[in-house]
Design goal:
Layout: E1 2-7, E2 12-17, E3 25-29, H1 33-92, E4 99-122, E5 127-149, H2 152-159, H3 164-172, H4 177-184, E6 185-191, E7 197-202, H5 208-226, E8 231-245, H6 251-259, E9 262-266, E10 272-285, H7 294-304, E11 311-316, E12 327-333, H8 336-345, E13 374-377, E14 387-390, E15 393-397, H9 401-418, E16 428-431
Parallel strand pairs: 10-11
Antiparallel strand pairs: 1-2, 2-3, 4-5, 5-16, 6-7, 6-12, 8-10, 9-10, 11-12, 13-15, 14-15
Helix pairs in contact: 1-8, 4-5
Amino acid sequence: MQSTIALGASSIVIAVAQQPGFATAQLTIRRSTRELNDLVRRATLNLLTSAIAVGISGCVGPPVLERQVLGYDEVTKTLDEKLLLLNIARVSNEEPVHFTSTSSIAATFNWTATLGVSGQVTESKGTNFLNLNIGGSASENPTFSISPISGKEFTERVATPFQDTIFEFLVFQGGRINQAMRLMGAGIEAQTPDGRFVRFIENNPQRPKEYEEFRRIAAHLQSLNDNRQLFVRPLVFNETLIADFKSTPSAGDINNGFNMGLRWQQKPNGNYELTRLQSGRVVVGNFDPMALSDQQRFELAEKIKKNPSGFVYLDIRPNGPGGNFPIQGAIKLRSMFQILNFIATGIKTAPEFEVSPDVPSEQAEAGATATLKINITNSPPDLRLPTVYYEGHYYSVNDTVWDRTTFLILSILFQTTIGRIENVGIPITISK
């Protein structure tokens, strides 16, 4: 018996020789080394393809989304700024105002990753040639809805004076009260202790004496605020609903009243009183309203109710800080249109002028001569500044901290005026 095993580069041959008379059996195992290499290479390429595809999708998708979302946000902000400046320019040129808003932006993003493999394998020379083609693509399909803002509801919002709560919000959040007063205040209505009208101090450069007095009052309030001697807050008091309840309220009444903001309280005579915590109108004063009794706060709230919602109650008492400059009355707030008109007329018709404050410690702020100075130039200003091109000129916000801050307040007021964009007619839809 004789056995022979032959190993080759491309096959394995096993030959077995038997005794005479028996046939020779030969088993040939033909497993190409090239095929084995192809299997390994194919598995490796599949793994590599998956890894690269995941890498491409991870690298392409999020950055594209981030850039586009931030880009749309920046464009929307810039459009709002240009709209404000454009309407100021229109009023300055005695033209009607008009607002348009991008009510919605719907964008669909698609990104894909591709991988192509081609190559040549040469076993005889021991050299492998392999080409990889990696690619990625991203596409975007935005749809814009542009709504001309008009109609009765919006017109009323533009023409209606701001409420005292908006004024309180700006000051409470850290804004300068003199800046808010000069922008939002049409003037100060001096009143008697019982709320009767005495005279009006208009915030209008065309009435120089009244304008100077208004500016000095605003500077005085800012000085008190800087020294934490001014209180700007809504009145809070307990409103009595039932003054003398002779029976004992049930547990259900007490529980239900608690959920509704009502409070049962037993009085010294054994009867019960039902009250509700109420938030009233805004007070600007050199005294803490919470230091008053609940009855005094209630009576003050009842007196303030006589003023419209666009009046901010003002009470600088002689016996308090800054009492050397006492005044009692209300700050009359402007509407959005009146604010735009005040700024626009200040460009050409009635420019504001410097007023020296009566408070010695008050320091002049750079750029504070005008409430909001708008520059008109023939060439474009610094790209950082809000700017709009209109009728051959560039209208831009003056480059000072005061003017940029005032324009920020104006932008906030503009957003509160617009509110939700709905029922303003048929929007203009643009698909890219």
